[in-house]
Amino acid sequence: MRRKEREVTDLQEIREFLEGQEVCRVAFVDEGAPYILPLNYGYELSEQGALTLYIHSGKLGKKMDIVKEQPYVGVELDGNHQLVTGKAGCNYTYKYFSLVGKGKVTLLEGEEKQAGLEKLMAHFTKEPVAFNEKMIGAVELLKLEVTSFACKKNA
């Protein structure tokens, strides 16, 4: 990272950022080119810093076709945006927090799928949400294991 003074490594600060966002952008690889989608997510961030995102999907469509062919992705989240004005153009700055990484997507089944859906919904509702087998069977759940990521902020 070029601007080391902006690097964020504190897991609690990263967790608070993840908790406050609703959309991540995932860059899939489609015939050698990026295909970027904004997606809702749930997450887990372990005490060791391992990050996993959970993303639901319909059973059919371009995203699912791509995942079956190429499971490696890029991921990006950003937030906490605020323009800071200055007296001249070069005196302006912009506050932000961002997370950029890469990883691998797998499809979940069974109990893992249900647990992942529960994490996804808990991210938005902040309370448990029940699923029945029909609901679980109607969607796919992508598990994005983020193999490496970096966070940066200008506060």
Brief sketch in words of this structure:
The chain has 155 residues and is an alpha+beta fold.
Keywords:
155 residues; alpha+beta; Pnp Oxidase, Chain A; eight-stranded antiparallel β-sheet; 46% strand; Pyridox_Oxase-rel; Pyridoxamine 5'-phosphate oxidase family protein
Low-confidence stretches: none
CATH C-level: Mainly Beta
Number of DSSP-assigned strands? 8
The CATH homologous superfamily: Electron Transport, Fmn-binding Protein, Chain A
Using only CA atoms, what is the Rg?
17 Å
N-to-C span:
17 Å
Order of helices and strands: EHEEEEHEEHHE
Structural class: alpha+beta
Average pLDDT score: 93
Q: How many domains in all?
A: 1
Strand percent estimate? over 45%
Helical content band: 25-40%
* Count of helical stretches: 4
CATH topology group: Pnp Oxidase, Chain A
Biggest beta-sheet profile = 8 strands, antiparallel
Q: Which CATH architecture would you pick?
A: Roll
What's the arrangement of secondary structure elements?
Blueprint: E1 7-8, H1 11-20, E2 23-30, E3 33-40, E4 42-45, E5 51-57, H2 62-69, E6 72-84, E7 93-107, H3 110-125, H4 133-138, E8 140-154
Antiparallel strand pairs: 1-8, 2-3, 2-6, 4-5, 5-8, 6-7, 7-8
